[in-house]
Amino acid sequence: MECGVCLNEYDSRNHVPTLLDCGHTLCRNCIEDLLSSEQKLCPIDRNPIGTRLVPNYELLSLLELRCQNPIRNLNENELKCKNGHFLACSEDFKAEYEGAGLMFKCKLCKREINDGWLCKFCVFPICDECKRWSTDTQEINDPGIVCVKNHKIRLTPNAEEWNSRIGRWKNGKFLCDTCLVKKTGASAQCRTCNFDMCADCLYKLRQVLSMVEYLICKNKHPLVWLPDFVTSRNKDFACNGCKKRFNKSGSFNCGLCRFDLCILCAESRIVKMRNSIHELL
Ligand SMILES: [Zn+2]
Ligand SMILES: [Zn+2]
Ligand SMILES: [Zn+2]
Ligand SMILES: [Zn+2]
Ligand SMILES: [Zn+2]
Ligand SMILES: [Zn+2]
Ligand SMILES: [Zn+2]
Ligand SMILES: [Zn+2]
């Protein structure tokens, strides 16, 4: 989306989309030029540009829909929204929008906030704690080790603290979505999806993925790791090994035979296989 006068893409700093009284939108810069001109008319319909110049919230919130996961666009300590805008630190979000009745909820923890980090253009706020999580924890870059929606995940110490903050688990533990065990300590998290993979599962998944070519179904087809299996078909699955149902975890899958293994069952097969190879040697 670009300003019809200067043809620059709208952004949060130099080209904030701003609404004129007549209903047209131009960037803030061009409007300031118009204000200092003699006629002060909208260049599109020649109506007076008016005095109540506010950002175009409709446009801002439309763009917000494209803006979901701030974590992917990290550049060292700089945080960007999905559209590539830098987030700026702000002590008063409402003042940034000139007092308009917008509500600001942290995109990650969903708490209501009025300070923290903001992409002003996309109305993309996150709180300071979530910002620090996004910049200070380690992103996992192994292929295939992602959340149920294929987002990158980050290794978070004390995952129980986050889970109690968002009210998901309040008993000082968190539920690992991939082994369904309540845990404390480190977890590989996607905070957009509230996805947790405990440190044990992370270790096991790495082991399995390094030998995944040895996994087969009962009819000897190779199994394929599908981290987004449940979200892509919108349905949970039952593991053919342990019979447990999983609604937020990937599957080692044979589509032909509808055969699924959870991470733990896949790992125990790999371990058995390794041991039998050792016995042969
Ligand atoms: Zn402009
Ligand atoms: Zn106009
Ligand atoms: Zn937050
Ligand atoms: Zn943005
Ligand atoms: Zn686990
Ligand atoms: Zn996710
Ligand atoms: Zn299983
Ligand atoms: Zn099969």
TrEMBL record:
<dbReference type="InterPro" id="IPR046349">
    <property type="entry name" value="C1-like_sf"/>
</dbReference>
<dbReference type="InterPro" id="IPR017907">
    <property type="entry name" value="Znf_RING_CS"/>
</dbReference>
<keyword id="KW-0863">Zinc-finger</keyword>
<keyword id="KW-0862">Zinc</keyword>
<keyword id="KW-0479">Metal-binding</keyword>
<dbReference type="GO" id="GO:0008270">
    <property type="term" value="F:zinc ion binding"/>
</dbReference>
<protein>
    <recommendedName>
        <fullName>RING-type domain-containing protein</fullName>
    </recommendedName>
</protein>
<dbReference type="InterPro" id="IPR013083">
    <property type="entry name" value="Znf_RING/FYVE/PHD"/>
</dbReference>
<feature type="domain" description="RING-type">
    <location>
        <begin position="3"/>
        <end position="46"/>
    </location>
</feature>
<dbReference type="Pfam" id="PF13639">
    <property type="entry name" value="zf-RING_2"/>
</dbReference>
<dbReference type="InterPro" id="IPR001841">
    <property type="entry name" value="Znf_RING"/>
</dbReference>
